[in-house]
Task: structure prediction
Amino acid sequence: MTTLIRMLLAAAAGLAAPATLAAQCTPDVLVAYYSLTGHTRQLADAVAAGAREAGGRVHLQPVDSVALDVLLAADAVIVGSPVTNATMAPAVQQFLMRWPHASGAMRDKLGAAFVAGGGLSAGEETAQLAILQAMLVHGMVVLGGADWMSAFGASAVTEEEPFDSPGAVAAQFLAKARGLGERVARVAARLRCGG
Result:
């Protein structure tokens, strides 16, 4: 039986063709980040790779390059920032402040956060929570990382021993970022397809 006949029969039966169904279930995942030293960009790349592996259609962009139509079309938005004074960087805060609020356009989208900070107690969790708090104000549904060790999302320590490898983010932090991307894309696909 040809593909065309199968598609026509599926349409006649009120069912979506497999390729169409797969396309309908593919979530759009926006990974928006700001990076000063390249560490947050490395995390963003890992988050995006995890989301792609889980079947997401990923848009990886710096926060100052995200167009409103890309933001609004996303099923999930994962925001990354370097830790600045125990919170998100000003550029990330400006990005979040540009989101449409009154229209409710962000309501019920998935949201998640990732950050890169200098030390073990340098404010990674408070920076993540600041991003998640802004998402909650917009009515988003926020997700943490893949397990309890990344409850608020993904984070990396970049300047304190033994994690102070010049220019590189340690492998365990990249794995957490990949896990965050995978989880967000999987949940977004389930929500998109009603499963």
Observations:
- Residues 1-18 have pLDDT under 50 and may be disordered.
- The domain at 27-193 is CATH 3.40.50.360 (Rossmann fold).
